[in-house]
Amino acid sequence: MFWQIINFFILVFVFNKYFKKPLGKMLDSRKKKITSDLSQAEDTKKAAIELQKESEEILRKAKIEANEILKTAEKKADERREAILDEAKTQREKIIKTAEMEAIKMKSDAKEMLQEEVKVLAVKLAETLIKEKINSKIESTLIDEFIDEVGEEK
């Protein structure tokens, strides 16, 4: 047991003499590396949080801009729809006016044609009546003359 204690102290002495400084340096460098890695990880985490906030802000702005674009597009669509409706109403009114003018013209043409036909029929009727009167006068004159002639011969 005595020898084990002596052996232990010798090991402690050798360890302190030869291994303490290199192991201490290695542990210190390892500690510094771990500390720097932790601080770097903390900085990276902060940067990531900041980038996340920026991306959320950009996304919020993009949504607002998209809504504005959508509202503008809807407004333009409404304006275009109104313009198309106004144009359609104008064309409808032009078509109605044109149709009314054509109807008036057709009515006038039909009236003129009827007047011409009435004139022709009136002339024919007059001719027929005149012929009948002439024929009846001629007949009555002829009959009267015949009677007069027959009466004088007797």
UniProtKB/TrEMBL annotation:
<keyword id="KW-1133">Transmembrane helix</keyword>
<dbReference type="InterPro" id="IPR050059">
    <property type="entry name" value="ATP_synthase_B_chain"/>
</dbReference>
<keyword id="KW-0375">Hydrogen ion transport</keyword>
<keyword id="KW-1003">Cell membrane</keyword>
<keyword id="KW-0812">Transmembrane</keyword>
<keyword id="KW-0175">Coiled coil</keyword>
<feature type="coiled-coil region">
    <location>
        <begin position="41"/>
        <end position="116"/>
    </location>
</feature>
<dbReference type="GO" id="GO:0012505">
    <property type="term" value="C:endomembrane system"/>
</dbReference>
<dbReference type="GO" id="GO:0046961">
    <property type="term" value="F:proton-transporting ATPase activity, rotational mechanism"/>
</dbReference>
<keyword id="KW-0138">CF(0)</keyword>
<keyword id="KW-0813">Transport</keyword>
<dbReference type="InterPro" id="IPR002146">
    <property type="entry name" value="ATP_synth_b/b'su_bac/chlpt"/>
</dbReference>
<dbReference type="GO" id="GO:0005886">
    <property type="term" value="C:plasma membrane"/>
</dbReference>
<dbReference type="GO" id="GO:0046933">
    <property type="term" value="F:proton-transporting ATP synthase activity, rotational mechanism"/>
</dbReference>
<keyword id="KW-0472">Membrane</keyword>
<protein>
    <recommendedName>
        <fullName>ATP synthase subunit b</fullName>
    </recommendedName>
</protein>
<comment type="function">
    <text>Component of the F(0) channel, it forms part of the peripheral stalk, linking F(1) to F(0).</text>
</comment>
<keyword id="KW-0066">ATP synthesis</keyword>
<dbReference type="Pfam" id="PF00430">
    <property type="entry name" value="ATP-synt_B"/>
</dbReference>
<comment type="similarity">
    <text>Belongs to the ATPase B chain family.</text>
</comment>
<dbReference type="InterPro" id="IPR005864">
    <property type="entry name" value="ATP_synth_F0_bsu_bac"/>
</dbReference>
<keyword id="KW-0406">Ion transport</keyword>
<dbReference type="GO" id="GO:0045259">
    <property type="term" value="C:proton-transporting ATP synthase complex"/>
</dbReference>
<comment type="subunit">
    <text>F-type ATPases have 2 components, F(1) - the catalytic core - and F(0) - the membrane proton channel. F(1) has five subunits: alpha(3), beta(3), gamma(1), delta(1), epsilon(1). F(0) has three main subunits: a(1), b(2) and c(10-14). The alpha and beta chains form an alternating ring which encloses part of the gamma chain. F(1) is attached to F(0) by a central stalk formed by the gamma and epsilon chains, while a peripheral stalk is formed by the delta and b chains.</text>
</comment>
<comment type="function">
    <text>F(1)F(0) ATP synthase produces ATP from ADP in the presence of a proton or sodium gradient. F-type ATPases consist of two structural domains, F(1) containing the extramembraneous catalytic core and F(0) containing the membrane proton channel, linked together by a central stalk and a peripheral stalk. During catalysis, ATP synthesis in the catalytic domain of F(1) is coupled via a rotary mechanism of the central stalk subunits to proton translocation.</text>
</comment>
